[in-house]
Amino acid sequence: MFLVKFELMKIQIINGPNLNLLGVREKSIYGDSNFETYLEELRKRYPDISISYYQSNVEGEIINKIHEVGFSFDGIILNAGAYTHTSIAIADAIAAIKTPVIEVHISNVYKREEFRHHSMLAASCKGVIAGFGMDSYRLAIESVLSGK
What we know:
Layout: E1 9-15, H1 27-30, H2 35-45, E2 49-55, H3 59-69, E3 75-79, H4 88-96, E4 101-105, E5 127-130, H5 135-146
Parallel strand pairs: 1-2, 1-3, 3-4, 4-5
């Protein structure tokens, strides 16, 4: 009898500053659902994938998490919040790892303030998904699953 060890695909979702306030802050932009409720829905939708979640308001902690999982996970879905527009350090962390990173945004950043139209991270990421509400995360998971 042979035992086959099956490893689940591993995806890390990382949310940056102020995203711990989803469902509370600026509901007209971000909706009225908190992320933990949405995360439960994602895990039910993808039971054969290990979906880990991390949120921090601190740039260095986000970089540490990218380093921690960036060589062993199948994909990272990163919503760096406002750090998207300012953090060369996070862009460098993404460039330094092997795991593909997909940048996501709940809102359509191109319909918002001018400073949000530029991402410091996008050039280091596999792709960018923006403007589909929380569904942006599901679309990113689908991208990781497709390998494209």
